[in-house]
Amino acid sequence: MKTNGTLSYQTLTAPGVNEYGEPIPAQSEWSAPVACLIKTNTDNRKGVYEDGEFRQASFTVLLESQELPDFGRIRLTRHSESLGEYRIMTREPFPNFGRIQIMV
Q1: Which of 27, 34, 62, 89 has its CA 20 to 30 A from that of 101?
Q2: What range does the domain containing 38 cover?
Q3: Would you tell me how many other CB atoms lie within 10 Å of the CB of residue 38?
Q4: Do the domain assignments include residue 20?
């Protein structure tokens, strides 16, 4: 499969209790970059608020089938340009093609 970018997914460590009985909060970590194909559905930078502007975008991401944990957020990079962090809308495996499709 041709690739044009990478994605990193956010995982959360489980909260717990240390040896003194004090609570340990859950920690978030980003995975190592995974090669993928990123296709733009929509992308504009017309969003404006009082202190600046923001990007409204939607992407379709294809990656090779692999064992991945459940995750809710991904960070996308295409051709060394950071596209941002996005919440996953859908995650659909295509076992016949050996691919996973993610829409953000």
Answers
A1: 27
A2: 5-14+26-103
A3: 21
A4: no
19 within some domain: no
80 has a pLDDT exceeding 80: yes
**pLDDT band for position 73 (cuts 50, 70, 90):** very high
Q: Is residue 76 included in any domain, yes or no?
A: yes
Mean pLDDT of 31-56: 86
Q: Which of 71, 98, 101 is nearest to 87 (CA)?
A: 71
User: Structurally, how many domains does the chain consist of?
Assistant: 1
Asked if the structure places residue 21 within a domain, the reply is no
Q: What is the pLDDT of residue 40?
A: 94
